[in-house]
Amino acid sequence: MRQILDVRCGSCGHIDEVFGRRESAFRCTVCSSESKRIISPVKCQLEGVSGDFPGASFKWKREHEAAGRK
């Protein structure tokens, strides 16, 4: 499985996204020196009150109201 990884160049500091595996070696697209994988923040947002994903509580409510009407 190929993943999208964030890598940072050791010499120029350029940050780039690359397709690859965890054990792969990466090269900077700007200066061609060695780049290392960096940990990027998770790109998701949770609802402030319940802690669910946005829309999950609405889906649960809609499904249970539909089941109550049957």
Tally of discrete structural domains: 2
Strand order within the widest beta sheet = 2-1-4-3
Number of strand elements = 4
**Count of DSSP-assigned helices:** 1
Order of helices and strands: EEEEH
Multimeric state: single chain
Query: How widely separated are the two ends?
Result: 43 Å
Rg, Cα atoms, Å: 21 Å
Mean pLDDT: 79
Question: How is the secondary structure organized here?
Answer:
Layout: E1 3-9, E2 15-20, E3 26-27, E4 34-38, H1 56-69
Antiparallel strand pairs: 1-2, 1-4, 3-4
Structure report:
There is one protein chain. The protein is of the alpha+beta class and 70 residues long. The protein folds into two domains: 39 residues; 28 residues, no CATH class. 20% of the residues lie in helices and 29% in strands. Strands 2-1-4-3 form a four-stranded antiparallel β-sheet, with no helix packed on it. The longest helix has 14 residues. The radius of gyration is 21 Å and the shape is elongated. The chain starts with a strand and ends with a helix.
